[in-house]
């Protein structure tokens, strides 16, 4: 993974608009190494020429991603916008990796760290990342209310989110085992 200065921080306890930054007071940033310890992988990719980007094509080939589509989340393009934005903000996990690539706009992916703290990761143009199966996470737009992203899959797309609690899923157990060393430090 190339260093790309991913912006991420622990979230405060505010229940104000989910599209705001929600920093702790004072802000507590986390670095790329901390994010990576949770199995999250990320790369910088040229969003304006990703079809010819060596990193994009290598990651797709190495990880077997053979299906992709594109989604634009904005009031003008997404039917039932508010309902869907609230739906994707609900804490959930997937049985497969979640792979996203930001073509334009921005938003936030939040995940629960090994101590159950919220970490907010800024999703910006050019960020290509993989969340591991079994990690609790959610997504929201930021105050720009616009993101255009690629979604990638191995095989046919599986859209099923399992809302928390879903601790009985084998993928959750596998994820927890992968971060067990963090709880032993």
Write the layout of secondary structure elements.
Elements: E1 8-10, H1 32-36, E2 41-44, H2 54-63, E3 67-73, H3 81-88, E4 92-93, E5 98-112, E6 118-124, E7 127-131, E8 137-141, E9 147-153, E10 162-163, H4 170-178, H5 180-183
Antiparallel strand pairs: 1-6, 2-7, 3-9, 4-10, 5-6, 5-7, 5-8, 5-9
Summary?
The protein is α+β, with helices and mostly antiparallel strands and 185 residues long.
What would you say this structure looks like, in words?
By secondary structure, this protein is of the alpha+beta class. It has a single domain (8-183), classed as Jelly Rolls. Helix content is 19%, strand content 31%. It is built from 5 helices and 10 strands, in the order βαβαβαβββββββαα. The longest helix has 10 residues, at 54-63.
From the structure above, extract its key features:
eight-stranded antiparallel beta sheet; alpha+beta; 5 helices; Jelly Rolls; single chain; two-stranded antiparallel sheet
Beta percentage is 25-35%
- Strand-and-helix sequence, N→C? EHEHEHEEEEEEEHH
Count of distinct structural domains: 1
What's the gyration radius in Å?
16 Å
**CATH fold label:** Jelly Rolls
Structural class: alpha+beta
Question: Count the helices. How many?
Answer: 5
The top-level CATH class is: Mainly Beta
Helix percentage range: 10-25%
CATH structural architecture: Sandwich
Number of DSSP E strands:
10
CATH superfamily: Jelly Rolls
Question: Per the principal axes of the C-alpha atoms, what is the gross shape?
Answer: globular
Q: How is the biggest beta sheet arranged?
A: 8 strands, antiparallel
Give the CA-CA distance, first to last residue: 24 Å
- Low-confidence stretches are none
In round numbers, the mean pLDDT is 94
